[in-house]
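Write out structure tokens for methenyltetrahydrofolate cyclohydrolase.
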Amino acid sequence: YFCLFSDEAAIISGTKLAKQVLKEVQRDVESWISCGNKRPHLTVILVGDNPASHIYVRNKVKAAAAVGISSEVILKPKYISQEELLDMTLKLNKDSAVSGVLVQLPLPDHIDERTVCNAIAPEKDVDGFHIINIGRLCLDQPSVIPATAAAVWEIIKRTGIQTFGKNIVVAGRSKNVGMPISMLLHTDGEHERPGGDATVTIAHRHTPKEQLKIHTQLADIVIVAAGNVVSTTKKQCLKPKKKSLESIGGTTWYFMYFTK
């Protein structure tokens, strides 16, 4: 993740922050087990041979091991039926030895991802994609938050970026990233699940470039959660915005986008 300040670029290391979080989670897991509880266990279902999915799953298993969480990966061929996948998910829901279930996305075209995500028990829904978890997120209630949105929110909190009363543009409206980020940022900071109290504008692929330029130039914070608008946002927003901020004075502008 990068944050660009009004006159110079400052890099916020997601890797460094992630290491801090992992240490904290490791301590929490150790404390949980020392109190007589069973070790948390993650089961991942990986369908097909998508190279990126295999890398993501490998990284998740590695991170789980680093904090003391046991895990297993169930590999299934891309031609698995939706019924078989749902049956497997329901069995994991009932398995008391399994603390969390994750079905790696994307899935083959013949399988409906929303149906599969909603088949996972909400309390075991590691990705936070179940309709109940998304609904609780929208109602400012504690829930499992999708990982990327949670990471953005954690970066904002840990680096002291102020969102209260700020104008924020989120470029991207995906149900797994852009939407939950927007929900976290605009909701009430005094509610059960505190939000960012910001005024949020959501842009997407059908937002005209000139409108995108207007919105981003008015924004205090720009979060890009869609690869196809990164270059456009950088070209039409960064330089003009820096000039306008210099004329306003005393304002810090943040631009965040995701890198692999």
